[in-house]
Amino acid sequence: NISKLILMPDMGTRHYVYEGNSDSDYMLNTTYPFHCGAMLWQGIENDTRNAQRESKNITGQTFIENYGRWVNLKPMKDTSANVSTWMEVRDYAERKFILANMSLVYSDYQKCALLQYKDTDKCEVWRYENPEKKNKTTVCELLHEYVCPNNITIYSKPGCYKKQK
Q1: Structure pTM?
Q2: Dihedral sign of CA atoms 34, 108, 15, 69 in order
């Protein structure tokens, strides 16, 4: 149930985009490789969720720039489904512009979620806890190897999520 995944977190909660199958990001649409990814949950409006997609531009071992994009996540159902199983990811400012469609493959709603970009072989693992604090392999990462096995990239690097002073 993707509605539970995106509507459940409290405002200000961060989910960490731990790994995926591409150096680029459908939501941010930049020339920078995607590193240190996160979803920062914001308000709910009309059964949709606002969030900020975050990443960092990295040169060598230095984090040189934080960047993000405000998105709006809308749970969607296939005609035969009783619950929402996928979401439209829209630009927050221009809601007509769909950045991506993502299906929920698996979530335990406590530790992780595995999402797949619809009609592609690309997935993302979202961790609910900071991977620098608890870096044990989750079920989502194991499933990722079977659902989207090509070019798995770890987006989380040491020092990614340290609080800035």
Answers
A1: 0.91
A2: positive
